[in-house]
Specification:
about 80 residues, mainly alpha, two-stranded parallel sheet, 5 helices, 2 strands, about 10% strand, elongated
Length: about 80
């Protein structure tokens, strides 16, 4: 994955580990990243090997509820 380094995708990508990030609205940076992948035959394989499937909505909701419980357990018990 090559994505802009802002927003939701930037939160999922570790630049150089499971994808590449580039500055937003920078076509030269995007072209450079694309060239890098095209010229380094193993780069795409290394990035893909570190890729992971994003959490589904149930997992995300459960993780947030657990976080809220650690922050304010009394509020949840009162509800």
């Amino acid at each position: 994955v090559i994505a802009s380094n802002i927003g939701g995708m930037a939160e999922l990508i570790e630049d150089g580990s499971n994808g590449l990030t580039v500055a937003p609205n920078d076509p030269r940076a995007l072209a450079s990243a694309m060239r890098r992948v095209a010229q380094d035959g193993g780069l795409a394989r290394r990035l893909a090997a570190n890729a992971h499937e994003p959490e589904n909505i149930d997992t995300t909701a459960r993780r947030y509820l657990e976080l809220i419980d650690t922050i304010a357990p009394s509020r949840i018990e009162a509800a």
